[in-house]
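Lecture 7, part B: from sequences to assemblies.

Below are the input chains for today's worked example.
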Amino acid sequence: MSRLVDLAAVLRSKNAGPFLVTLDLLFEDDVTYRRVRDSGVLDPARIGALYGVPAEAVRVIPFDVARAIKVTLPRAHSAGSPADTDVYGAQQHGPLLELEVPE
Amino acid sequence: MKIIALNGQLGYGFTEEAFREGMARGPDVLGVDGGSTDGGPYYLGEGRPMVSRQAVRRDLSYALPAAVQRGIPLIIGSAGTGGGAPHVAWTRAIIEELAAEHGLRFRMAVIGAEIPAAEVLAALDERRVRPAQVGVPPLTPAAVHRATRIVGQMGVGPFMEALDRGADVVLAGRACDTAIFASPAIRAGYPTGLAYHMAKIAECGAHCAVPGIGADCLWVELAQDHFIVEPLHPEKYCTPVSTAAHSLYEQADPFMVQEPEGVVDVSAARFEALDWRTVRVSGSRFTPVSGRPTIKLEGAARVGFRAITVAAARDPAFICEVDGIVDRVKELVAGNLRGRLPEGSWSLRFRMLGRDAIMGEREPLRHRLPHELGLVVEALADSQDAADAVVALARSTLLHAGYPGRKATAGNLALPYSPADIPLGPAYEFVVYHLMELEDAASPFPVELVDVGGAA
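Predicted structure of the full complex, as structure tokens:
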């Protein structure tokens, strides 16, 4: 087992517009990328549970050419609104770091 | 075509070293993105920029004289962060000041991006408005009226018109990030897909490089079948991963980038290292929209005024009991204000830094108590005076609140500042983030030409 944070070269979150947050994972080599992509670890139900959104609201998009996996989900509150906690959405990646990926 | 992207946002700065290197290479265009919705709704709503006048002046003090003296265009999009009329005017004043100081004469195109509420309401009435993304509620007339202004993101058309009409400097309000850099390229006949993909990377400056800080210049060379990117600072470098990562940046979909005139498809894009610091990108495609073009609308409405106190606690018993203590503080404050401030006209919130301020109930580690807890006490109310009063009362109540097991009876908080309470001013939220269909994507954005410098 390896942690996602150790497998990914880039693991970040950011707003995609004020209403969505998008998480990007990028990998340095095809083997690691395919291992994570095909592991089923980044599935909408698991991510939905981590972030408190329904699975149907989560999009997981592998981007083979860039060895990247993109996860997009709705923000709990629009960026900068009174209840918001993270205007840029740049620190929402925490729950993904420790996810374990089988060999 | 050789392009310098000054940085990721006008006013973020860049190194003089990178700028001089770029100018020495003989660019055809200088461009910079002046704003975004990244920083939240305040800047658009209030009509103020997110960067300081000094910082924007500094960046332009390099770029403006260099561009004018070399006879190459300087293109600024989404001026002043929000890209509305006050933001453009603010930037224009800086440009005109610098022009006078440096004795520069040039033609400037000023392109406004504010769209009258009446026009948006008409579009809404004609069912030509839809949410810009999932999670955005349908637009209502009430939301249109609440917004302090509505801007549309202009596409390449107005920029191209400005350049056609001889503008040396293009100062545009809210624009698609890509329009700034794609417009001179498309105008010069480069393939649209490549031009847009290039523009998407360029608009963040050196963010696609390592270290990934946007605050420096990016060099771009566009050819008919590829473009290359290279950071201008000699110690920075672009890799295929860092550049590919950038194409995903701030996008919900890594494959398709929506522009007013169509969709840019980067799914088949290739990123190849030319050397240790230069990346070649190819394979980007463009599909024109089949129906009418759409313009993305943005608008923010004020929701009240805020005041905060920043504090910290070090006492383990306080930190352990803080949720119960805060509940009691809220009750005491509500009791004190009953009959003095209207019910529902104010609210109090406590952010616990070091515990769960970022992810709230979703924080998997929120039960792990820190040895030091940061607290932001925040009041939201109908007026600044009311917000100030609420936060002051909450702060003093929290500072002196008793709780079971308390030994630190002199005060619960470390306050870093005197004055402790900080008025934050108006609070906003986005209420317009919608696509408006129209016949001509450029029609809401008239191009005004101004001759700056005049007679000597």
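Note for the exam: Residues 210 and 236 of chain B are 6 Å apart (CA to CA). Keep this in mind when comparing with the next example.
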